[in-house]
Amino acid sequence: MPLTPSPRARAAANNSPFTPPRTTRHHDPEWHIERKPTKSGSLQAAFEALKVSAASKARAPNPHPKTASSPKSNIATRTPLRLDLGVSEWALTGTGTTIGQSPVKKRGGKATKTTIRVNGDRFIPTRSASSPTTTSKIDRPVSRPNSQASGNRPGSSTGRPIPADNTVLRGGVFGSDEDTNASSHSLGDDSEPISYERPNPESLAYQSSVAAACGVDLSTRILAFKPAAPESSKPIDLRTQYNRPLKPVASAAQFRRRILTAPERVLDAPGLVDDYYLNLLDWSSGNQVAIGLERNVYVWNAESGTVSQLLETSPDTYVSSVKWSADGAYVAVGVSTGDVQIWDVEDQTKLRTMSSHESRVGVMSWNKAILSTGARSGSIYNHDVRIADHKIAELNGHTSEVCGLEWRSDGAMLASGGNDNLVNIWDARSLTTPKWTKTNHKAAVKALAWCPWQLNLLASGGGNYDGCIHFWNSTTGARVNSIDAGSQVTSLKWSTSYRELVSCHGLPDNQLTVWSYPTLVRNVEIPAHETRILHSALSPDGQTLATCASDENLKFWKLFEKRAGGAGNSRSGTGSGKGVGMSKQMTIR
Amino acid sequence: MASEKPKSSKASKAPKDGDRVHKLSLKGSAKLVAEFFEYSIHTILYQRGVYPTEDFTVVKKYGLSMLVSADDQVKAYIKKMMSQLNKWTLGGKVSKLVVVITSKDTGENLERWQFDVQLMGKAAKAKAAADAAGKENPSSNAEVAPPPKEKTEKEIQEEIRSLFRQITASVTFLPMLDSRCTFNVLVYADGDAEVPMDWGDSDAKEIQGGEKVTLRSWGTANHRVDTLVSYKLQD
To answer: Where does it mainly reside (chain B) (predicted)?
Structure first.
């Protein structure tokens, strides 16, 4: 038996023979329309359809008394009705022959496939309203067809409250003309191409009312801005939202490190030559400070606070530069004649004198056993201090006095700066020409410093008319950052424990400035000396900076004090030792 | 923007002022609407905690302290959005702007701020069309079309200010947004509007079974903006 489908279908079949229901059917298109707008609409429609089906059944002259009785109160009797109809169908099939309406029966049988009840009835009034002219072709055929065919169609449509129904319905409509069977097919005909009916005025009105109800305007498109909104930086607790101070707390200041702005110690440095191009101060890894004062070099032991005179050069000369070797055992001393002396500090003996430069040696830098020296002539020589023929390389990149010279900690690169406003970066493997020559500075470049935590980063500072600090990537040669410090940069030192560097300046403020890197925020500015700061040196533990100026003071600044609970005990020994030493008041000389 | 500060103080209700307002061009009016959109978005993002409080800075606008995002990404995002929105608004292509707040965890739409824009001329046209169809069109479009009343800039500002006050106040009845949220902007544009790549068709992102609250309206002689917030009722 094809009765498996729901009884409603059969009911629909039953109804089909009757003309009245058919006519109603006609309006299906409209109710497709109403469904289109929104899902909710379709649901509603489906719901109404339910009622309708009941009503239609009621109208249809049903052979069965029960159905006939139901008509008035559709809703109340809805469910029972269907059941009854099902029963009646049974009766029909059973008594098929007796009824004598064989076509009806057949249809019913086929209709069973379509598990739907009739809904079209509800729209009867609208149907009449829709004139043939306004309605589409699709509509017209429907109005004509036999009652039977139409009966099936509406049923099918009602069965599915989904938007897809539209097509189904229409398919059914077409089918109705040809054959009743077609109606059953129509169910599967969703894919059948159907032209949209031209909406009649009422349907339009209905559309718009539905649209309005759903807040949708059919003549418009809803467009979304497709890119996803940026993520919020952190989870948000709305509770904090309503307790907000009008001005945000200065969080940056809160986290800024406190830096002591008073010198920890001041020593006299009488006779310090006021010459920007010299380098007369250095702090050894053995915690000794060497300073060149006119013809003398003094060594101040930071741990014991004792001071000793290391050497005195011959008359009519002066010390132009001092530099400790990496192990802190030897100090190289450049002399105004162009000689370079190597001294053993512990024995206080001169180990050798290397003569090669014709002019004063203003700057030196050690790379293991190699000492690079820069002279007033603009030439840079590399000396191997271990061998007799000490001069192993000539670096010709400057045309004027070399005043800045700094080996990178790994010895792979050498940076030099000169009075010709150039910064040269040399590759240790090929010293014939500089790897990079930078012309950005507008004044002599004395201040050079390699970043301890990013090997290829070099900071350079220009003189009076420049006042800029540039940061270079020594691998690519690119300038990665710049600061306009506003005054002569005489020295630059990176902190070893903070992401900071300190710059020493000349007029007008003779200040020390501590910068954060890479933010380049000015952390603190200390008016350090009464005259321009000439030289600076960082203690081996990286906490203290020594500066000397032409005001003949040597000052010690604890700029990079280790955090209270901080690690770094390896250095604490020297640190504390130094502290003890510093507690004694000492003067050089 | 024409509606800014010093003028309005001078303005009050002098007939001369009325004249000037009357001349507030359609373009100026549209600009006002577009600007209003931008501030609305910022305000909603702030008030509903879509982005952290610290990301916002105070600016004076409409005689209020408005909070606008200072986060570069958010600013860039809104700027990009506004650049197109301005074009549409000036062209009268926008009928609604919707800010939808969506839960990041569930993807559920939690809140929907809808700004209905009526172009007065357009509304009248729509109504005419509806009449021609022989049916009273009940949609909000045709329904409210009071004769374009001249308003002073001061009055307009006052209306906008009242609305922003209401938006701010609405956090008292809107449910807490507990989960992490993001937002999306929808524009109901005319079918013939040009649509750049960044914009695509969307559903209405309605709040299913949500509560709706209508807020104040404001308008110029050319535009009228109605505001509606719908939100998900808490279980």
So the answer is: nucleus
